[in-house]
Design brief:
The protein has 447 residues and is of the alpha/beta class. It is built from 14 helices and 19 strands. α1 runs antiparallel to α10 and α8 packs across α11. The longest helix has 19 residues. The N and C termini lie far apart (57 Å).
């Protein structure tokens, strides 16, 4: 990509931005033309103009400009500069290459960067790519990758790993079906249940462990995005304890961990895409995992009537992902900009209040009611899902990722529960059912 130099005095030097110790090479010339060869050792550099330095000669009616190249890499055999077209300190109108300018092809399945207002990190990442690079990084964004298919997000992970897209922010649930293991613990049922826990997760040392698990996968992880907390939504009777969950056909999104959790609760998992609300209307599903913000943004509240507000199933954590192939092709400066943009995105997400009470109240105005599971019902769900946690613990590995997540969750034991007015609430089951779910034989025996 070419960048036109400003119509100003060229200046006393041109800085060539590279990744090594700086070296100054003076070049004195008058009336010559500059040329940077693409085969030079400075290919991929960024040229910046600086202030002009004039040196009077003779009686002052002539001047010579000294041009200095500040190179951050030692000169090798190829010549960088041909000739420089400078007449005194007059304006230089020309075009020089700026190989730090790059377009990134990013994709998401969510329809937009921030569809509900809760995807703060995602919006900040896109904005920061432009800001930290001074506009040199531009983004071409595909917002509806996969067309709502249940495999769309896993297909996106594969596309990034292959280099068909430069990057995106697929959620952790998508990686297993894409053939990339190691992130399943992020969906451990009823473990990370609050925005405070999410903030600690994305900004702490656990994030680096997650990125390390992507090595060799074709994907570089540069940040984690706080996402919505998913709860049980139901078409009719609320899904509270194992009795209500028993044989309930429940939508999950292409995730084996979600499917196992639903089985543990006593339900029947059904993996389906964005058409799940239509299936709820025709009684093909009794419920699904969803979040309050997306439910409101969908504009389609007729398919579900109740939300179990004090049961958070799992968070939707986004992984800011770059194709390893694409990332390795970038200059060190471009890579640094991307990492800085991801850091800014995470920091921006930490400053936001993720209270969903206002959105919940709006859902109530549309006829949705909120129900609390009893303490006994919640305890029964946790007990029945212990075998799922034990299977996830097998993935603990030398980095102890699962143990770290469990310890973090213990610091934030209370789920986020939206506050709604009394008329928005519906009583739970009177008996406070705590009977165990019917667990499939293949999963019984403490697995």
């Amino acid at each position: 990509m070419l960048r036109r130099l400003p119509q100003t005095c060229l200046g006393s030097y041109i800085r060539v931005s590279l990744n090594a110790a700086p070296r100054s090479v003076p070049v004195e010339s008058t009336g010559v033309v500059a040329s940077v060869f693409s085969s030079s050792p400075y290919r991929g550099s960024t040229l910046h103009t600086a202030s002009c330095h004039r040196e009077a000669h003779g009686n002052g009616d002539r001047s010579a400009d000294t041009m200095r190249i500040l190179a951050t890499r030692p000169l090798v055999s190829a010549a960088i500069l041909g000739v420089l077209a400078l007449t005194g300190c007059t304006a230089l109108s020309g075009v020089l290459p700026d190989d730090d300018a790059v377009e990134l092809r990013l994709a998401t399945i969510d329809g937009s960067v921030n569809p509900t207002g809760r995807y703060v990190a995602q919006q900040a990442f896109v904005d920061s790519l432009r800001d930290v690079s001074g506009g040199r990084i531009t983004v071409k964004l595909t917002t509806t990758y996969g067309g709502g298919a249940v495999i769309a997000e896993s297909d996106l992970v594969r596309a990034i790993a292959k280099g068909d897209f430069d990057g995106g922010w697929p959620s952790s649930r998508a990686f297993w079906r894409a053939g990339i293991g190691g992130l399943r613990a992020l969906e451990a049922p009823m473990m990370i249940t609050s925005a405070a826990a999410e903030k600690a997760l994305v900004s702490g040392p656990i994030a680096d462990k997650i990125f390390s698990r992507l090595r060799g996968s074709g994907i570089v992880g540069v940040g984690l995005g706080i996402g919505p907390l998913r709860r049980p939504f139901s078409a009719g009777a609320p899904l509270l304890g194992p009795n209500e969950w028993h044989r309930a056909r429940f939508r999950v999104f292409n995730s084996p961990v979600q499917a196992d959790a639903v089985r543990a609760f006593g339900g029947t998992p059904v993996s389906t895409g964005v058409d799940w609300l239509d299936r709820m209307r025709i009684d093909a599903l009794e419920g699904g995992e969803f979040d309050i913000g997306e439910a409101l943004a969908s504009g389609d509240t007729g398919a579900f009537g109740t939300v179990t507000e004090n049961v958070v199933l799992w968070p939707k954590i986004s992984v800011f992902s770059l194709s390893q192939k694409r990332f390795d092709s970038l200059t060190a400066q471009q890579q640094a900009w991307i990492r800085e943009a991801a850091t800014r995105a995470v920091q921006a997400s930490l400053t936001v209040d993720y209270d969903e009470s206002a959105a919940a109240q709006e859902l109530c105005a549309k006829g949705v009611r909120f129900v609390d599971a009893s303490e006994d019902q919640i305890a029964a769900l946790r007990q029945n899902s212990q075998w799922v946690l034990k299977e996830l613990a097998v993935d603990n590995g030398q980095d102890s990722l699962f143990t770290d997540l469990r310890d973090l969750a213990a610091q934030y034991p209370d789920p986020d529960v939206p506050e709604v007015s009394a008329e928005c609430r519906q009583p739970g089951s009177a008996e406070g059912d705590a009977r165990p779910a019917v667990i499939p034989k293949s999963r019984a025996g403490g697995r």
